[in-house]
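Summary: Need help interpreting a holo structure output

Steps to reproduce:
1. Submit the protein chain below together with the SMILES for pyridoxal-5'-phosphate.
2. Request a joint structure prediction with the ligand placed.
3. Inspect the structure token block that comes back.

Expected: a single structure record containing both the chain and the bound molecule.
Actual: see attached output.

Input attached:
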Amino acid sequence: MRIYLSRPHMSGTEQDYVAQAFASNFVAPLGPQLEAFEASVSDYLGGDLHCVGLSSGSAALHLALRIAGVGTGDEVWISSMTFAGGIFPVNYLGATPRFFDLDPASWTIDIARLTEELAVADRDGRLPKAIVPTDLYGQSVDLDALEALAAQYDIRLVLDSAESLGAAYREGRKAGTGGDAAILSFNGNKIITTSGGGMLVTRHKDWADQARFLATQARDPAPHYEHSTFGYNYRLSNICAAIGLGQMEVLDDRVARRRAICERYRATLSRPGISFMPEPDGHRSTRWLTALTIDPEETGVSREDIRLMLLEHEIEARPLWKPMHMQPLYAGSPYHGTGVDEALFANGLCLPSGSDMSDEQQDEVIQRIENLLDRSR
Ligand SMILES: *Cc1c(COP(=O)(O)O)cnc(C)c1O
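--- attached output ---
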């Protein structure tokens, strides 16, 4: 049986919630399951946050940036190493991305470099409209430092927490609670899923109100359809939200399982030339995907040697995200960094990390990689 990178993993209660949605005929992009799902995520994240269920994480980012006031000619400063859905909304709005490298100590945005560049941009009168740091592979960014910077320059801060629901940024504060807004994704490969879906999480009630308004075709109050701006059809289906209700019940279990999978890889595969994604003191990553780098000089094998060998045995592994400043689409875009992200892309691999992977399956992955490494010494 094929071993996947990260598959949907149902708890078993999802179908009951879906049946409730059918029983009440709320087969629509609104309904009690959607409200309950939003409340459940809000409770989980710790209180005073407004949650708006949306059709995808990309849709959530699109709305967050629009509400942040991003438009034609503006700059958005963003981590280069991310998934397309975490960057394309900048283009939807006619804005321009400026890309930032990662800090090797956390594999999240290089805050020292960001701080320097903000000072320069402030002096030159060309500050960005928004900053969008990515919580990479389940690891929260340094929220305190980024919130302080955003406040200092009065810039909107939107956290891309699509990969980090369930992570803790220091004691008592969860990923997804930061900035003006954070976005979550419930795509099929994420730590929990609604088959497809996303959420905008914000402390500002007016942002949540705006998001609901824009996500339902921007209807002004009137009995007929009245529009003073354009909107989108971005609400999460009540049926999908019902799946999310079942998934929220097991979120902490899923985090624990993914962390255990990562620990097992580390315990067995660590050796000179193999480094796992660091987890800074006080942070608790979800280890959504176990990410590691392979130094071909030291190990005698390349990232691609490992990936292709696994593929031959029906085991899915994937290179780390290709940094956006290296993509043909963004050729020539401004980039600030020394290529930490480029090196991670060159030698980095995500191993199968799904919470439904059995120990036997993981043993097989580990055994095959160990064999290859031993043969290459
Ligand atoms: C998954 C993901 C998104 C957006 O996801 P959707 O597939 O649109 O739900 C955005 N940013 C990052 C970093 C992601 O991993």
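--- end attachment ---

Reviewer comment: The chain has a mean pLDDT of 97. Residues 14-248 form a domain with the Aspartate Aminotransferase; domain 2 fold (CATH 3.40.640.10).
Status: needs-info
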